[in-house]
Structures
1.
Amino acid sequence: MRIRGRKQVTAAAGAVAVMAALAACSSSSSNSTTTPAGGASTPASGGSTSSSAAVSGTLNGAGSTFQLTFEQQAIQNFKSVQSGMTVNYNGVGSGTGRTDLASGVVNFAGSDSPIPSTETANFKGKKVLYFPILVGPITLSYNLSGVSNLKLTPSVIAQIFSGKITNWDNSAITSINPGVKLPSEPITLAVRSDSSGTTQNFSLFLQTAAPSDWSLGSSSTIKWPSGARAGNGNGGVAQIIKSTPGAIGYVDYTDAKAAGLSYASVKNKDGGYVAPSTAGASASAAGVTVAPDLTFHAVWGSGAQAYPITYQTWVLVYAQQPNANDASMLKAYIGYLLGAGQQLLPQLSYAALPSNIDSTAKAQLSQITS
Amino acid sequence: MAVTSHAQAEPPKVDLREPPSWRRTKNQIVTALMVFAFLLAIIPLGFVIVTVIAKGASVINWSFLTSEIPVNTSPANFGGMGPAIVGTLEITALATAIAVPLGVLGAIYINEYGGKGILARIVRFMSDVMSGVPSIIMGLFIFTLWTLHFQYSGLGGALALACLMLPIVIRSSEEMLKLVPDSLRQGSSALGATKARVTTTVVLPAAAGGIVSGALLAVARAAGETAPLLFTIGTVTAVNKNVFSGANTALPLQIFSNASSPFTGAQARGWGAALTLIVIAFVFMIAARLVTARFARYSH
Amino acid sequence: MSSLTRADSATPAESAHPLAQRRPLGDRAFAILALTAGLLVLVILVLIAISTSQQASSWFSAEDLSIFSRDWDPATNSFGALPFIYGTAVTAVIAVSISVPISLGIALLLNEVVPQRWARPIVYVVDLLAVVPSVVWGLWGILVFAPWIQHIYSSIASGVNGIWVLGFLFGGQNISGASFFTTGIILAFMVTPIITSLAREVVATTPSIDKQGAYALGATRWEMIRGVVWPHSQGGIVGAVLLGLGRAMGETIAAALVIGSSPTITSHLFSPGYNLPAVIANQFGESTGVWRSALMGTGVLLFVFTIIVNVIARGVVERSARRARGA
């Protein structure tokens, strides 16, 4: 009896060992986060970014998916500003982004909400700086053939998404849309299956603007009425709306435009109907009060041109960095986001920060120290 | 279950090979059902493959397989999935190197050394339990214990995948070892071989085909898993050849995030990545099955 | 060299005395290696159990039984996990019910019916089921399969609404392509290659002599399978089914995409639902505080659930094996 099996087992084990060795012993690319600084750190003057000082190393960031599209574009364009730096941004969700920052897994976190009180203990008393980087509208996108200019009020939206209004030809909707032919179809809700900052801020808007009609609270996950169709990501919700006649859902402006959806004009705090736009978002953000630490909520801002369902997102960093190179890299990158990076926002359908918020944020850069 | 003898009939006319018609019909029905079962499994598979090819084949070219990952808004023919391919290969290889030897040794312990002892029973039972743990829990376990202390790395992802593969390898290897007849072991011992020698030179080769087959299933599963990698390896747009340090990316992650994006370019790249992953996994599986067919003692 | 003793290397006990005294270093080292591997598995499992339980502790420390309530609503801070346990059970049962007959059919087809030459290509085709990544199954499920099957669900539901058991299971108002039943189907596709592969290996070891004996007595192929292959393979097949069940319960991404994300308990299988892995995958990224702890806790609950299922399955195997031996 020839025992060929042993040779096979040995050969297989050898192959696996070689594969593992190859994987391990290959050259390491410049991916360590603490390579020594390639140049002087940027001077701590009034927050302006100095592109003349070269910085090198890797920055890792994680968090909100709302800012993911912007981060990706900024990272790519930033390479021509600081070619020695590599920035990675992982869109895992604001909650995990904050957890990653608290444990030092990442250098910066992207978050659509300020750190909740239940999480402050994770940061062990170290100061966290908030850098707002953009605002953006949330659209009410819908699929109704022949209807292109739907108008909605916060109260009606709240009733639709609570399941109190179930048909398109309900008098509450027809009365605010005179002259529009609304079908007598049932309304299909398109919502998020995954938790998200978009849901959180959309529900916050409903809670703020229509408190008597909205009882489902504000959270990154809402218990929607039965019959709601859930999709993964803004793209998933957009796909449901596109393929379901009579559907309505809440989709990020950037993603609604990319998917080619029709969206409604919403009545704002001043009483006018405003269509979602980057200008409307900036107007809403300009019409809210900003705390000294740069936290704020951009929903339901005052102003005639304000689009009321607008939200915001921040980059969070520790004020105290472990070494000088990390501090320089963060100042360079965040400075870019607040400076030249803001030019990238319109083509991506985001709204730029109102100028007062932007300059305060730039001034805050000097608080990043080592 | 007793087997009935064939029906009595006039001696000259009966055909001893032909059972009475009802039993024959039952037999034919069952055979038809078996073929039907095969079709039921294959038809949806066909649909999936056709869908992936239809949506993904148009982006595949050499540039796609080697280029860096572009921003989501880029059009479909821009950039590629090179870093994800490298990431998947190196992370899965590392996970296999960790899980397969450990799992086979564990199965050897349970079956050859542990026997009816309490420890072996506990290990066997717990590996059953572990095979039901969701892949996301494995990912979160490694996230809590490893990533939060050692940052993003391919190693973290490999550990999570190894946790996923381990119970599968143990269970299937144990089943295969159990099937090896005791007579082989006894014969080998009777010739004076020590237990270790018996196991490595007689039992393992005899069970090799089944063990490799089970390990293959574990590797195929690991290569296609998203959840264990979600929170443990981060993301990159350029190739990271060092699997032990620094953030990394993998094909399943890219497929998942791209397909949820509303940008058509990103979606096309996501499906291209899906097609690539299926091809890679399938080629690997065929290669390993060929190896098994050539070398296994009890090949079919 | 060593005298022929009654050393029985199939028993777990130490080898017979003469051999034990002269036990070579390599043998002992190998035994220790195997033992270490076994212990390492145990350590990893215990670590997972402890670590997840620790994360879940703030949820478990709720004094009442609210963790088993039907209401899961982060907006109101209620975290009852019953809908997810229900969903996991339902989808896993559906998946295994669909998959086991198919897998056994294919395994028997390959071993008993199909000539040797065709066996290998068919095996490769069945392997293709295993190499499709779970995320692709999920995406195909939600983008292609669910919209198509929703029409079929609606037709069935309108047909059986009112009929007693059928209406209970397949009726209802909230018919959706993304539902318990669709998840069960998709999971079945993912589980089939596992059960098939292992069942094939097990069935292939049926002693040829018994099979030939049955044929010699005039049995048809089906009767031979029933009388010879099945009793021999029972234990191994149950083991394969258990492994498949484990996969069905633990599959995360595909379930998260096609289950409908609705934490409701309903008998209507064509309605959206939720299960344990799916809720963790969907909600972990944004979760915080008690919510995050509750999500880890649902994972611990799944541990317990898996243990119960395994104990039952093992009991079934023992009993049928005892019956087969006694028969």
2.
Amino acid sequence: MSTTTDVRGPATTTPPAAPPKPKRRRPKGWWLPFLLLLPAILFELLIHVVPMLTGIWISFTQLTKFFIANWGEAPFVGFKNYTVALDFTSSIGSGLYKSFFVTVGFTILVVGLSWVLGMSAAVALQGRFRGRSFFRTLFLVPYALPLYAGIITWKFMFQKDTGAINHFLFDNLHLPGDKPFWLIGGNAFWSIVIVAIWRLWPFAFLMLMAGLQSIPTDVYEASAVDGAKPFRQWRAITLPMLRPVNAVLLLVMFLWTFNDFNTPYVLFGSTAQPAAGDLISFHIYNASFLTWNFGSGAAMSVLLLLFLLVVTGIYLLFVNRRNRNA
Amino acid sequence: MRKRAIAAAAVAAAVSLVVAGCSSSGSGSSSSGATITYWASNQGTSLANDKQVLTPVLDEFTKETGVKVKLEVIGWNDLQTRIQTAVTSGQGPDVLNIGNTWAASLQATGAFLPFDDASMKSIGGSDKFVKTALETGGAPGKPVTSVPLYGLAYGLYYNKKMYSDAGLQPPTTWEELVTAAKKLTTGTQYGFSLAAGSYTENVHFAFINASQNGGEWFDSKGNPTFTQQANIDGIKRYLDLMQTDKVVNPSNAQYDNGVQAVNDFATGKVAMILSQNNADASIVSNGMKSDQYGVVPFPAPEGAKKIASFPAGINLSIFKNTKNKDAALKFVKYMTSESTQGKLAKPYAVLPVLNGVKPGFTDNADEAATFQKIYNDMTKPLPLVPAEDQFENTVGKAMNDMFAKIATGSTVSDADIKTAMQNAQDQVKQSLGG
């Protein structure tokens, strides 16, 4: 019994045998936190965990229209949906593969440019000047607008013959050439990038602006005394001090953008889907709903989930290690 | 102990709250005093117009039977998804309109009430329906799960004045049609307008053009045969109206519903459109009079099969898990009665689906006769197989993509069409478990 005590050194004042554990009285009201958490846990289960598990289960079945009114009867097919989705020589696999690369390009551009815009605006509005709060409000407008209303307005503006963008470029600025299509063909990619940046950058701006508030001004003053110019200040002070904000901001923006469903769905409509703007969430939706093949769609969703988990894991590992080394 | 009881009660309360939230939508029992939900498809010039047309008709039904009807009008681009969601969740309307081409597909889900002998009798018996129309109600050999409500067929609408100014006769062959369209395409005007961004319109004409060549989309076992040469040729012919004949404005690739093309026609921007007979309402509402346009059957190439349409139309279905079966059957009987059909024929410009009823959708006798002839003698039904809607979705979407490619300056070759059809076929095959 007392053999374990020698690691603790000579201080062996403990009695040779442990006395019977005194029955610890639970403090009054111990259950209150649990009760308060209960609704949240319940709804978390109901809204996130249960559907996710259901989705994983569906991905192993052949849930097609023949079973859709009675899910339980859908036959179990093991990994078949996964092998089809990952067979890049088949048309279904190659469609997913192409959509994946479109989404990667889209995400890099949207997150990168949104961050640059957000950072520029946040830094520009860091100092006090007249009209600062006006610009702050103005820049947040896209974030405050209802999503659908904003994107539908873009959809109108991107119309070929009647849209404001072509009208401005070709009727007002008199650019040479024919008015292009924006929502079909190759330009669809640029359209969706523009709309997504318009929607996302105010969030980057808001987060970075909040982050900048926490940097003490005397650091800047001290560096100015040492002769640091604004860009040097930004690189040597602002950027390192915003590191924790950036670490979270980039991750969140990456996840939102990679998963973006609303933008392509509203911009292109539920039936037309240009190959150039074929983002992966939208692709999976179409793969499920065009042919009522929910097993296949669920398998693709699980693959997407795994991919995002892996990327997030690697990213957090990398960021944490750098933080520890810093 | 007491505390545990409190916690258990809290859990129970939360669960029951959630469960109640999920199931609060179904209520009422059969017989009068019930309220049924009815999903109508967009048949009029707009969703608001549909509401206007249907409301007095539904009020009349409430007055007769005491059953209240909650109406929701749903646009064509959303209807199928809404039905899918309803089937999946089991939370649907009591009665709904479906595109009759989906009948066999929706029947396969098992979510709709089969009109067995008793049900059929309660709505007035199968004999009251035109045979061609009732055959669209489901797969052959099974009790139908939908009954015809409105009859429609495609026709080629042409602007009489533009034709006579150019010294042209209405086309009777595809070749004549292309020649006329080219002649009528001038700087400001196009020969043709197509709803080239609408997957439903596109797949219909993929089917009709392919059928003229003798193409089939499914074999006898219900497996897809999209890549047949006849199908590819038919699709190519239709795409070429924009691609090589250049009689269609490339902007049409963004027309995602038929009404936009109809508006172009009614406002004199184009000389011809392909449309179902319900276009009349939109044409007239745009200020074009019924004697200013003519209708002929959509012509086939010289020597090809004279197929101009499929027996299109709208059917009525009842959700199997309705809690108001009697009221729903009464409603179906009412909607398919001669008097209701008479009231709706004109505003919706639809062909009769009841035996012995004269077409009342237009005062133009020639037009009425032409459409009746197309419907009766020049149609081939879309495949009556469970995968029909998947055929519509995948091939329709492929057509949209190909028109988009053409409109943005690329070319679509036979090989491209074959690849697109192979792609569509693979998707349908996989969903059939192949």
